[in-house]
Design brief:
Layout lengths: L1 H5 L2 H30 L8 E6 L5 E15 H6 L10 E8 L3 H4 L3 E5 L12 E6 L4 E11 L2 E5 L3 H46 L5 H32 L2 E6 L5 E5 L3 E5 L6 H17 L2 E2 L4 E2 L2 H32 L4 H13 L4 H24 L14 H25 L3 H9 L4 H30 L4 H4 L26 H10 L4 H36 L7
Antiparallel strand pairs: 1-2, 2-3, 3-4, 5-6, 5-10, 6-7, 6-8, 8-9, 11-12
């Protein structure tokens, strides 16, 4: 045994075992996140049953079973329920009842012994709405301007056609409100700022006033035209509605203007469910959020996360490389440099929220405030760069990840053989040429390693971003069709903050929980995609300069 221990074999197996456990834990977390998040988009069957209330009365229930758990019977009896039998524990179901505008609540627990047989009628309709969440009921009729146009077996095909029409009109209304009216408002705001700037500079002549007023009248006329078209679209989308019987027996009218999707989950086959699943997954990635971020998509958060990481990388890489090159290649290796290295290493351990406070005070208030005073006086007192935005968020994260890039680059520079430097100098190259053409290319894989680590940390940060740029819901993306096209002063959405907001600030926790897992899984995929791009580039550079490492 002693010889076996001395041989080092146990340590090899221990290392292998530790690696295996780590991999199992990582993939376990990913599997759990994916399983709980991606199932959200699968069309759940809708159950219909009867529940016995505390007073013995019976009520009909229609909804989706979203969870179940074992609960002590004593706990239920103390709450007033009369549980039959002598069991110590029983099951209770969490039902998503929807119809929040009718019943006042969305989710509710029901003890299984007080439920009658669970049935799954194929005619139960699930309606996804832009507001108030899901609606469940038995479809009775389709109406046009309050008059029935289809009922019975003909109601569902007619409803699907009219929902598709309403969906197209809704997209047109959304595009008109966001793009067309947004363009006009952008022009009007630009004219206001132009007039204010000329006034501050003392160059607001009568001719300039007339020119600005003429442009303003043209924009106002365009706005009136858009408003007229918008009112017409709203009238068209408000034409149709559906009538459905809800669980309390009432027949409720739902305007199709509020409907995002209608389907009968219980009547779907496997192919229909797969098609529905892929369509909802695509919508989740490409659409804007709604219902306080508990419904809809997360495209603005994806866009903001990727853009912030790219801006951060553009800033942190040159700064980190230059700092590492100076400390390794030019600075004298004395006590001062050693102290600086210790300080750089210590900066990596500073809590991220401290960087957020620094970014808020220095970047937003100091730099941004002075920029507004110098270049955007016409917009004051409304801040332009003097408020949190994606630029300040990127710079804050660049400082946060700077130590990682510096340390990785220094390690790469230290691995470049001294003989290569001397050979380059002997052939007549200057120190700068040696550094640029020989040393830095060979150290580039290490630089990319630093970038990979920086991206992995920055993409998942949330605390500092809450202070320097991220918001719950951004009205506009940091990039659009208006000059200068990239608006670094704008606030943005972020996947990490989206997870925090949906998971901990949502008014409907049960509805938000699957979205937390789905968004978390998507954040991991975004980080992996960004890192894979960097890893691919690093591997190419490593293969290119592998032959020189042994010199």
């Amino acid at each position: 045994m002693k010889e076996w221990v001395k041989s080092g074999t146990p340590w090899i197996w221990g290392t292998a075992g530790g690696l295996a456990v780590a991999l199992v834990m990582v993939f376990g977390v990913l599997w759990l996140t994916a399983a709980r998040g991606l199932v959200y988009f699968w069309p759940s069957q809708v159950v219909e049953t009867t529940f016995i209330e505390k007073d013995g009365s019976k009520i009909r229930l229609i909804g989706e079973i979203k969870g179940e758990e074992e609960v002590a019977v004593r706990r239920l009896t103390e709450s007033g329920f009369k549980i039959p039998g002598n069991e110590t524990f029983t099951t209770r179901y969490l039902l998503k009842l929807g119809n929040r505008d009718v019943s006042g609540f969305d989710f509710k627990w029901f003890p299984a012994p007080l439920l009658t047989e669970l049935t799954y009628p194929k005619d139960i309709l699930t309606v996804e709405r832009h507001e108030w969440g899901n609606f469940y009921g038995h479809l009775k009729a389709v109406k046009e301007n309050g008059k029935v146009v289809a009922e019975g077996a003909a109601a569902m095909p007619e409803l699907e056609k009219r929902v598709e029409r309403a969906r197209k009109l809704f997209k047109e209304i959304f595009r008109t409100e966001k793009q067309d009216i947004g363009d006009v408002n952008y022009v009007l705001e630009g004219l206001r700022l132009k007039e204010r700037k000329l006034q501050l500079e003392g160059r607001l002549s009568d001719a300039a006033k007339r020119s600005i007023e003429k442009e303003r009248e043209a924009a106002s006329a365009q706005f009136t035209e858009i408003q007229t078209r918008l009112e017409k679209l709203r009238a068209e989308i408000g034409r149709d509605s559906l009538s459905a019987e809800v669980m309390d027996g009432k027949v409720v009218d739902v305007p199709l203007a509020k409907v995002a999707e209608v389907y009968r989950a219980n009547a779907m086959n496997v192919g229909d469910k797969i098609g529905f699943y892929l369509r909802k997954l695509y919508a989740f990635i490409t659409e804007d959020p709604r219902e306080a971020n508990t419904e809809g998509g997360i495209f603005p958060a994806i866009f903001g996360t990727v853009m912030m990481v790219i801006l951060m990388s553009i800033v942190v890489m040159p700064l980190g490389v230059m700092a590492a090159v100076y400390m390794r290649e030019y600075a004298g290796q004395g006590p001062l440099i050693r102290v600086i290295r210790i300080a750089v290493n210590n900066l990596a351990g500073v809590p991220s929220i401290v960087y957020g406070v620094f970014g808020l005070g220095f970047f937003v208030y100091f730099l941004g405030g002075n920029i507004d005073q110098l270049f955007f006086r016409e917009a004051l007192p409304a801040p332009t760069f003097g408020s949190p935005g994606i630029l300040w968020a990127s710079l804050t994260l660049a400082i946060l990840t700077l130590p990682v890039v510096i340390v990785a680059t220094e390690e790469g520079l230290s691995r470049v053989p001294r003989s290569l430097r001397e050979g380059s100098l002997a052939l007549g190259a200057t120190k700068a040429e040696t550094l640029w053409r020989t040393v830095l290319p060979m150290a580039s894989p290490a630089m990319m390693t630093g970038l990979i680590l920086a991206v992995a940390r920055a993409a998942g940060e949330t605390a500092p971003l809450m202070l320097v740029g991220v918001v719950k819901l951004a009205p506009n993306l940091p990039m659009d069709g208006h000059f200068p096209y990239i608006h670094l002063e704008r606030q943005f959405m972020h996947l990490g903050f989206h997870i925090y907001d949906v998971g901990f600030q949502s008014p409907n926790v049960e509805a938000a929980r699957p979205l937390v897992y789905a968004t978390a899984f998507l954040l991991v995929l975004v980080i992996v995609a960004l890192n894979l791009a960097a890893i691919s580039l690093r591997n190419r550079l490593r293969e290119k300069y592998r032959g020189l490492e042994g010199m």
